[in-house]
Amino acid sequence: MTSLDDPQILWQGKVFDFNVEERVLPNGRKVDMGVIRHPGSAAILPVLEDGSVVLIHQYRPVIGDFIWEIPSGTISPEEDPWECARRELREECGLIGKKFEKIGEILVAPWYSDERVHLFIATGITPCEQNLDEDEIITAHIFPFDRAIEMVEQGKIQDATTILGLQFADSVFLRNRIGFK
After folding, report:
1. Do 144 and 78 lie in a common domain?
2. In what order do the strands lie in the sheet with 8-12?
3. What angle do CA 42, 44, 50 make, to 5 degrees?
4. Are residues 117 and 58 both part of a single domain?
5. pLDDT reading at 147 higher than 80
6. First-last CA distance in the chain
7. Catalytic option among 49, 78, 129, 134
C-alpha cells in the first residue's frame, strides 16, 4: 500500500497529477485510491451593465466538440484565485473586470479529485485584447441572462461549472442586485 505522505505518482501532467494514495476511512479500513491532485481553478461569470452575461464557446478535444462555458482556468503556483479569475477573463474573453465578487466554491468530482473551483462574478466590464493559449479555440458571446438559464434547461449548456455558476448567480446573488434582461 501507498501512503498519503508517499503517493505513487502514476502520471504527472502540466495541470494535474494522478496518484495512488492510501487512505484510512472513518471505520479504520485502509484503501488505496486513485486521486487526481489539482491546484484548483477559478471560473468567472462576466456581467455587463445591462445585466446580460458573456459565455464562451470553447472546443474541448476530450469530447471532440464545442461547448458553452463561463471562462475559467487553472490557478498557477503562488497565484490567488482572484488573480486567476482576472487573468482568465482577459485571456479567454478579451475583457477586463473592474469588480470581482466571489459567489461560491464547488468541488468538481470529490470521489476522485481534490479540484476546487472558485466562482466569481465580474462587473464593470471593458474590452481588451484576447490572449488565448495555443491549445484554446474560444469565441466569446453575449446573452441575456434569462437566455443563458434557458440554455441550461434545454441541455445546450452541459458544463457543470457553468451550470452551477449561473445557478449561484441567479439564486444567491444577481437577481437581488442586478436586473437581468
Report:
1. yes
2. 8-12, 17-24, 30-37
3. 170
4. yes
5. yes
6. 56
7. 134
- Phi then psi for 63, rounded to 5 degrees? -100, -5
For residues 102 and 141, membership in a common domain is answered with yes
Shared domain for 32 and 59, answered yes or no, is no
What is the count of structural domains for the chain?
A: 2
33 and 66 co-located in one domain? no
Q: H-helix or E-strand containing 87?
A: helix 81-88
With beta carbons less than 8 A apart as the criterion, state whether 173 and 100 touch: no
Q: Do 79 and 150 reside in the same domain of the chain? A: yes
At position 170, the amino acid (one-letter code) is D
- In this prediction, residues 9-25 reach a mean pLDDT of 87
Q: For the chain, what's the residue count? A: 181
92 is catalytic: no
pTM given for the model: 0.88
pLDDT in tens, 76-133: 999 999 999 999 999 999 999 999 999 999 999 999 999 999 999 999 999 999 999 8
Q: Which residue has the cell 485502509?
A: 30
Same domain for 15 and 89, yes or no, is no
Sheet holding 138-143, edge to edge: 65-69, 53-60, 138-143
